[in-house]
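Morning. Coffee machine broken again, so started the prediction first thing and wrote up yesterday's gels while waiting. Chain of 164 residues, entered below exactly as on the submission form.
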Amino acid sequence: MSCRINEKDSSLEFIRVKDKQDKFEVELPLNWQKEYISDGFLTGIISSDTSKELEETIIVNINWNNDTVCINSHLDKIIDSLSLTAGLKTKTKKLGRINNYKTCFNYSCGLDSLTSLQLNQFLYILKSDSLNGHILFTARVYGDAVLREQSELIAEIVESIKMK
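Came back before lunch.
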């Protein structure tokens, strides 16, 4: 099982999109398919480049949730446990800040129990100091390696998130 990062260059055109409840906005590649989800406590966007094979694309799931979350080492341990349940092993984790948001980051990889394919998962939880609710951002990359352009694109999308 390998979790290495390779390099490749690309340029994309982005569009700023909002969720259905107007809780957040994010910049996503213009040519990616976007699906909007919404109920009373959750609103989100699922997006990916559906013109590519599963092993060549990034699947992004961005959800705003009204639940209270505390970003601390206890949350970090819960995420590790959930990753293991899904067959993924944590490779990198970090607590910190992205823009004005407290952030918990977890990168894990392993064999996806649903697809039986190698999965690389990037998980971010973003919490504003002044707003209720939080963002749960996951990006999935299938295959043995994550290209540098893929990891940079994921970081760029996360950094573009603005909660309202």
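Residues 17-163 form a domain with the Protein Transport Mog1p; Chain A fold (CATH 3.40.1000.10). Going to sketch it on the whiteboard this afternoon.
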